[in-house]
Amino acid sequence: MDPVHHRTDYISGTLDETDAANNPIDQFRFWFAEAGQAIERDPNAMTLSTVGPDGRPSGRIVLLRGYGEDGFVFFTNYDSRKGRELAQNAHASLLFFWAPLERQVRIEGTVSKVTPAESDAYFELRPVGNRLGAWASPQSHEIPSRESLVQRVREFEARFGDAPPRPENWGGYRLKADSIEFWQGRADRLHDRLLYCREGANWTRVRLAP
Q1: DSSP E strands: which ranges in the chain?
Q2: pTM here?
Q3: Residue 36 placed within a domain
Q4: In-domain check, residue 182
Q5: CATH of the domain at 191
Q6: Can 189 be counted among the known catalytic residues?
Q7: DSSP class of residue 209?
Q8: How many domains does the chain have?
Q9: Tens digits of per-residue pLDDT, 152-204?
Q10: DSSP one-letter code for 188
């Protein structure tokens, strides 16, 4: 496929101020529900972008595990690259792209760790293999081989059996949004963009040029 000549026109929907919610969390809830119906796999997948101490941004896909007025929640290894970068710079962004709906949502804000109790509760919901993997994987750090990683899983399986506890260096983050932008693709690249910005306990909303 030649990317220069690949074209897709966006004609599936509109985003108008008269139809959009006044609160962006309500608008996200509506769109997220529709994504769950339209997207077969991982509608909760989102790009998390962080910034390193050298000012270089980095992005990766993580999974949304909760959201509300207090923020958007995801879980990871605190010693991973993203964990180390968030420890130095708590500003981050999230990006959802739902191609079948021709929609994206951009969220920017400040990240903080969830409580240990919240991390424990979610960790208990994970499959045993995932929980053992959290112990075995020194995420983002160099390892000698795939086999060494598998061997570490076996070692922790022998140690914990089918009830591994949560490692202290694994848990959740909550991004409290200060801006949320909803993008709906439109024909001729004249897309709809509504930007919500937090002002104290309230939100303002403006339309942006595509």
Answers
A1: 45-51, 57-63, 66-68, 71-77, 91-98, 103-113, 170-184, 192-199, 202-207
A2: 0.95
A3: yes
A4: yes
A5: 2.30.110.10
A6: yes
A7: -
A8: 1
A9: 999 999 999 999 999 999 999 999 999 999 999 999 999 999 999 999 989 99
A10: G
